[in-house]
Amino acid sequence: MSDEEHHLESKADAGASKTYPQQAGTIRKNDYLVIKERSFKAVEVSTSKTGKHSHAKCHFVAIDIFNSKKLEDIVSPSHNCDVPHVNRTDYQLIDISEDGLVSLLTKNGNTKDDLRLPTDDNLLTQICDGFADGKDLVVTVMTAMGEEQICALKDIGPKN
């Protein structure tokens, strides 16, 4: 092995991958999985038994965690599926710009200014109304496979 190859390997760390493999037969309802390069949450999982001429199959009905589109996939239970690393982080909402960008306060005191308001109408209304009323709001941002989106809201009371 050359020094150059070894140097590249040493740069990788445990969190370097956006996904990890998991055997399809072990994925259950409410688990995450990757279908067509997108992050999904399984809402229905069923496994068929082996037939006379076929192998067992896992049937997944899943919803995209960012745009709520439903998709189905069928995989052999012994094959690996990619599972996304999904993280949730809370940030305090500082400001909402006219073009729909939000300014968030991170735990270390910096600002995060690269997120848009959510597309979910109910959550969007709650955020805009709470912000207009001068409430202290904490938003939860879900991150998976390089995508991130506001997915939840907590009202921590009126601003002092």
What keyword list fits this structure?
translation initiation factor activity; 4-stranded antiparallel sheet; 160 residues; OB fold (Dihydrolipoamide Acetyltransferase, E2P); RNA binding; 52% strand; 11 strands; 5-stranded antiparallel sheet; mainly beta; disordered N terminus; 2 helices; NA-bd_OB-fold; SH3 type barrels; translation elongation factor activity
Number of strands: 11
Chain-averaged pLDDT:
86
Architecture of the largest domain, according to CATH? Beta Barrel
Number of helices: 2
The low-confidence parts are 1-13
Shape: elongated
> In the CATH hierarchy, what is the superfamily of the largest domain?
Nucleic acid-binding proteins
Count up the domains. 2
Distance between termini?
61 Å
Largest sheet: 5 strands, antiparallel
Structural class: mainly beta
Strand order of the largest sheet: 9-8-7-10-11
Helix content estimate: 10-25%
Radius of gyration: 20 Å
**Which fold name corresponds to the CATH topology of the largest domain?**
OB fold (Dihydrolipoamide Acetyltransferase, E2P)
Strand content: over 45%
Assembly status: single chain
Pfam family, one: IF5A-like_N
Family: Belongs to the eIF-5A family.
Organism: Asparagus officinalis (Garden asparagus)
Keywords: Hypusine, Initiation factor, Protein biosynthesis
